[in-house]
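Lesson 9: reading folded outputs for more than one chain in a single document. The general rule is that every protein is listed as its sequence immediately followed by its C-alpha cells, and records are never interleaved. Here is the first one.
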Amino acid sequence: MLNAQIAERRNTSIAQGVGMQTQVYVDRAKNSEVWDVEGKRYIDFAAGIAVVNTGHCHPKVMEAVQKQAASFTHTCHQVLPYENYIRLAERLNEKVPGDFAKKTVFVTTGAEAVENAVKIARAATGRPAVIAFGGGFHGRTFMGMSLTGKVQPYKAGFGAMMPDTYHVPFPVELHGTSTEDSLGALNKLFKADLDPGRVAAIIIEPVQGEGGFYPAPAELMRGLRALCDEHGIVLIADEVQTGFARTGNLFAMDAYDVAADITTMAKGLAGGLPLAAVTGRADLMDAAHPGGLGGTYGGNPLGIAASHAVLDVIEEEDLCGRANELGSRLKQRLESIRARTPEIVDIRGPGFMIATEFNTADSSAPNPEMANAVRAEALKRGLILLTCGVYGNVIRFLAPLTVQDEIFAEAMDILEASIDAAKGA
C-alpha cells in the first residue's frame, strides 16, 4: 500500500482539524528510525513530540508493557486499585523538584494534567484567576486552550475562551522582551486589571515548547516565586514537553534554584503510552474532595508499567548525561552552519531540547518560509523535523535520547544539506 493511497482515505474519513506535518504512514519503528508502508527509512528527530525519549520500542519498556498486558489491562484505579500505581506516585513524589512533602494524581494527557493542576490550585486557594504567558502552550481543551498564548491554530474559530485567564509577555531577548519587562507586566496587571488576591495560579513552561523553545531565565523564575509567595499564588510548572531527561535534567526545574508548587507532566513519562501526572505539595493536592480528581483511564496499568521502565532506563543509561552530550554536539554543528547562513539568528535550548530560529537574511523579519523549506527538504532526504514558534520560523530538534552515534551523525549531514538546499531555493 502506498502513502498516497492511505492519505486519500484519510482525507475522506478523518476530520481536517487533526493537522498533519507529513504524509508518511508508519509501518514500524525502532529506537531513532522509522519505516513507512512503502519501506522507506527515516531518522526520527521528532520522537512523537518528545514522547519516546527512550526511543521507539525500547526493549525494557516493551517487556514491562507485555508483562502487564498478560495480567490485566484495565480495572480503573478508583474501582480496583493496583500497587504499581502507588509505587509510581512514590517515585515521582521523590523525583519532582521541591523540598516538601508531595502527592500525585495520574491522568491520561498533558492537557488533562493542566486542567487538574488548575482545579487543584483553585480548590486550595478558593480563587478563580490563572495567569499564563504569551507563546506558551498548555493543551487543546478549553482551559488548556485559554491558557495557551498562541491564536493560530489553537484558538481561532472556537469562540470565547474560559473566563479569568490572563496573559503576560514571555521574556525573549531576541524579540525585545526582557525579564524585567515580563515581571513589570505582571505587576502592571496587578495594579490595573487584576487583584492578586483573586489569582489561584501562575503557570509557566520552564522552556516554551510550541512557542519556540525559549528557556525561562533564572531571574524570571525567582521573580515568579517571590510574587507567588507574596500573594499566596500557586506556581505551576508545565513540564509536559520538558520532562524526563529532555533538558539534561530529569525535570527542567532541576536547573533552577526555586521550585514550583505543582508540576504537570506527560509525553516522555511512559515511553509512548498515554499517561500524565500532576505532582505537587501534599497540602495543595489534598484540597480537592474525594471524587473531584481522577478519570476512567487515569493511570492505566499499561502506562504505569511503561513509566516504571522509562524511569529505570533514564537512570541506567544516564540519559540526562546523554541529552547534554547530544545537545552540545548539535549546537556545535549548527554553529558551523550558522557561520555561512545569515538566516540563522539563534541557536538555543538546554540539554537535547534544541531549536534554531530563522529570520530573513537581513534579520528584519521572521522567516517561516525558510524554516518550512528546511523541514520539507529534510523530509525528502529521510529526516523528520518539526517547526514551532509563534511565527512558525523555528525548527526544534527532539530526537530520542537513545539515538545511536552513527545515526546522529547521518542526521547532521542531512540537516546541513537541507539548510544549504533551502538557502538556494
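And here is the second record, again sequence then C-alpha cells.
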Amino acid sequence: MRIATRSGRSVLVSPDGSSTVDISDASDGRFGPLAHQVFDDWDEFTAWASGASIDFAAVGDPVNLEDLGSPSPRPQQIFAIGLNYRDHADEAGLDYPDSPPVFTKWVGSFAGPVGRVVLPAATVDWEAELVVVIGRRADQVSAAEAWSHVAGLTIGQDFSERALQLSGPAPQFSLGKSYPGFAPQGPWLTTVDEVSDPDDLRVECRVNGEIVQKSSTGRLIFSVPTLVERLSSVLPLMPGDVIFTGTPSGVGGARTPPRFLHDGDVVETTIEGLGEIRQVCVAASH
C-alpha cells in the first residue's frame, strides 16, 4: 500500500503510481481526510484498505508529483539521526557512535517530493536518507518488535546549511537543517510489506546527473529496529512521528575541496522500491 498527501488530504496511490484516490471519500468519511487522522487509526485503516476494492482507473485522479506533500506532514515528533553510516563516519574522520546522535528537523522545513529548494547561503549540502513513519505507538519496544510499529518508509533529503550547522561553541544542527524546503519527502509512504527487504535498500543521490552518494541501508550503524528500540526506551513514539535515519558517505562538505549546491543544481534521490524525489536549487535572490 502507498499513501500520499495531496492538498493537505490523505490519498491512496495506485499500485503503478499513476493515480490517487482520496481516502476520506473512498471510506465514506471513516478515515482521514488528514494524514494524522489516518495514522491515529492505523490498525483500523490498514484493515479497511487491505479489503477495499478500489477501481483506480475509474475513480482515480492522475498523479502530479508537484502536487504531493510529505506523507506525514504534521508529526508530533521528528527525530534525525547523525553519523549513522560507517562510511559517513569514516569520511568525517569521526569514531563510530556508541548510541545514536539525535537532533530534529522542524516541521517548517517539510516539503513534498518535487519542487524548489531555496539556498540561503553558499554552503548548503545534500544528504540522502531513508525516512521512517511510525504507525503504532511505540513505548519500550524491542528491536524484534519494532517493524510492527512502523507504518512505512519514504525517501528524504536532509539538506544542511553547514556554516550555521557547525557554528558556535554548541553546533546548531537543528537550525542548520530546518530552513524551508530542507526536509523534502516522498513521493509517498510505502508500507513495509511492499518492500522486499526493508533492512537492505539501495540509496542513491545524484546532483545534475552525477552520482554523489551510493550505498545501502544495510550499512546503517543503528538499523531501523534498533533506532525504534533506542528512541522508545526514552520516550513514546507516536503515530505519524518521523525518523530521518542518517546519510551515507558522499556529502559535499566532506570532499576535498568541499562542494556545495548552487543555483540551478538538480538533486535527485532514489531508494530501492520507494521511488524518487527531485529538487531544483534556487538562489535566495531569485
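What the second record shows: Residues 2-63 form one domain.
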